[in-house]
Amino acid sequence: MHKVLVIHGPNLNRLGQRDPLQYGTGTLKELECALLGLAAELGVVLETFQSNYEGKLIDVIQTTDAHGIVINPGALTHYSYSLRDALADFHGPVLEAHLSNIHAREPFRQHSVIADVAKGQISGLGFNSYLLALRAVVALLTEEI
């Protein structure tokens, strides 16, 4: 059975409270419940991790036994080369997910240093960005796409 790690970066612990116009009103717990439900439907094991600390995110990537990763690096998307390098060393598919459309936001948010090591990027669809990314990782793991 495949295992997928979903990583939530800085400030995502504040979902439902932080800028609901950009990020919606759903909480991190609600997002993780939706992901767990989809994972069960898809027949995969799901592990989730959230941290506001770059080093902790890197540590979990370097020590995971997951086969694929869905990651929303938060603001680290735009400047964390160390996070990018950890993802580049990961052995399975990586999908980048963002609740808001980073390409329609402030200029500094429009570039991702993670994009070139990810199989794909899904943004702007709220919780559905994560759900679609999970479906894509599972499809890649089962060679459906």
- For the termini, the CA-CA separation is 18 Å
Number of domains: 1
Specify the helix fraction band. 25-40%
CATH-derived architecture = 3-Layer(aba) Sandwich
The average pLDDT score comes to: 94
Largest sheet: 5 strands, parallel
How many individual β-strands?
5
Which strands sit side by side, in order, in the main sheet?
2-1-3-4-5
The helix/strand series, from N terminus to C terminus, equals EHHEHEHEEH
Unreliable stretches covering 5 or more consecutive residues: none
Strand content: 15-25%
The 3D shape can be described as globular
- The CATH first-level class comes to Alpha Beta
Radius of gyration: 14 Å
User: Tally the helices: what do you get?
Assistant: 5
Supply the helix-strand structural class: alpha/beta
Enter the CATH topology name: Rossmann fold
CATH superfamily placement: Dehydroquinase, class II
Written description of the protein model:
Helix 2 (28-42) runs parallel beside helix 5 and helix 3 packs parallel to helix 4 (81-89). Strand 3, helix 4 and strand 4 form a beta-alpha-beta unit. The protein is α/β, with parallel strands linked by helices. It is globular, with a radius of gyration of 14 Å. The protein has helices at residues 20-23, 28-42, 54-63, 81-89, 127-141; strands spanning 3-8, 45-50, 68-72, 94-98, 120-123. It has one domain (3-141): Dehydroquinase, class II (Rossmann fold, 3-Layer(aba) Sandwich), CATH 3.40.50.9100. The two termini are 18 Å apart.
Give a quick rundown of the structure:
This protein has 5 helices and 5 strands; from the N terminus they run βααβαβαββα.
